Amino acid sequence: MDESRLCTYPRFCDLKWHPDNGKTARLTSRSRLRLPIDLRLHTPQFTVLHETDDFMLVDKPAHLLVHPSVPGNPPTLLDGLEALCIYELANGGKLSLINRLDRETSGIVLVAKTKEAARELSIAMEKREFRKSYHALVWGWPKEDQFTVEEPIRRKGEVEDSPIWVKQIVDPDGKPSLTRFEVERRFEKRTSNGNRFAMLRCYPATGRMHQIRVHAAHSGHSIVGDKIYGPDDACYLQFIETGWTSSLERQLLMNRQALHASGFGWKGEDWECSLPLDMSNFLGE
Known about the structure:
By secondary structure, the protein is α+β, with helices and mostly antiparallel strands.
């Protein structure tokens, strides 16, 4: 790894700090305190896996926002990329995030460095030229070593009341969605919530919101740590209210969904991104 392309870009922002759990920082218009963010969760540190004059592939850690969502939010991947590519930007470059990962999902993000590259890569994505794969830790042991979930997905709030606006569900009137799964490993681990787990390789043929998480749960094997599609979606609401707690840890086992964008391919080339430490530790590696 080229250490010059390992980016760490801490900064300060206006936050309301909750020292009770040490892991929650909420935005508030009334608070103007200049307190450091929790760098364990929010520092935009990432690794460049591959880079050309036109694009780069970076390994995004879990808990890092990909791009700004509200004014004054903690540093994002885009902030770190802009700091890293300051020379390119000063010479006419323009950064564009071609694919985006959920905040808690780790792994490969494709970034265009010029307007021309962004157009080419966006068209390639629309034509489904990219080969993407993920690793996921799930509860239970799937019966088959390979299985496919081909079920349409839509937002739950379009069908019935949902306290979680972003929650998606399988619904016959949803958008066509297909995910292939392969079991790479079945293992046993004594935990506060279950003893049998599996490592899946996931191949989404379509790109719906939360698709892998929804299809994994639909198959009966929710992703470990998933606050919305795991044991109980009340975990998500509790997390929003209280931050990470010992009660949530007993239910979810990991403080984020154990989903990692590990593979990316295009035009005869393929790149791999190794598992992050939290997933490797869960596997006992």
